[in-house]
Amino acid sequence: MELIQTIEDWAWIGWLVLILLFLVIEMLTLDFTFLMLSIGGVAGLASDLLGAPIWLQVVIAAVVAAVLVLVLRPPLLRRLRRGEDPTPSNVDALIGLSGRVLSTVSADGGQVKLSNGDVWTARADAAAALEPGEPVRVSRIDGATAYVRPVNEENA
User: Fold this and answer.
1) What DSSP letter does each residue of 92-146 carry, written as one string?
2) Do 115 and 89 form a contact (C-beta atoms < 8 A)?
3) Measured CA distances, 14 to 2, 145, 150 (Å)
4) What is the pLDDT of residues 82-131, one digit of tens each?
């Protein structure tokens, strides 16, 4: 019984440590999940300071955190991501890009020069081989290989 009393007497330190830990993790992830958990910890700390038993403190902290994660986090994320640039980048930006065949492209390999100036190892997405100079379009990227289709096939 003395151990439980000691835990209840010093629970505020545990809540502070938990709140700080969640805030540090939130600064590293920037996803609002740990911010909501830390606010739940603040609710647990407040209930401790008001004299609630330890089990009630945990329940209050969990309920507040769950409500915040389910109700407040989604609109905050939408507001945060509203200003993001919707333009695809990296490999996603290459999908749909046009180019020309440099060396014969078949199902086994070849090379293409894309309209952005990059030269890529390529494979034909269709069964037929593509000859040098033929216009192509990137249909997908797998690792360092661009899968291409002839432009006239897409228009048909």
Assistant:
1) GGGTT-EEEEEE-B-SS--EEEETTS-EEEEEESSSS-B-TT-EEEEEEEETTEE
2) no
3) 18, 52, 64
4) 877 777 767 888 899 999 999 999 988 899 999 999 899 999 987 788 89
What is the reported pTM? 0.57
Tokens of 101: 């065949």
| 42 close to 60: Cβ distance less than 8 angstroms | no
Q: Specify whether the CB–CB gap between 132 and 104 falls below 8 A.
A: yes
Q: Please, which residues have CB within 8 angstroms of residue 39's CB and are 6 or more apart in sequence?
A: 64, 65, 68
Q: What is the dihedral of CA 137, 139, 143, 146, to 10 degrees?
A: -20
Task: For each of the domains in the chain, give its residue range(s) and CATH number, in order of start.
Answer: 2-80 (no CATH), 94-151 (2.40.50.140)
Q: How far, in Å, CA of 112 to CA of 57, rounded?
A: 64
For the stretch 39-68, pLDDT in tens is 999 999 999 999 999 999 999 999 999 999
pLDDT tens string 89-102: 678 888 999 999 99
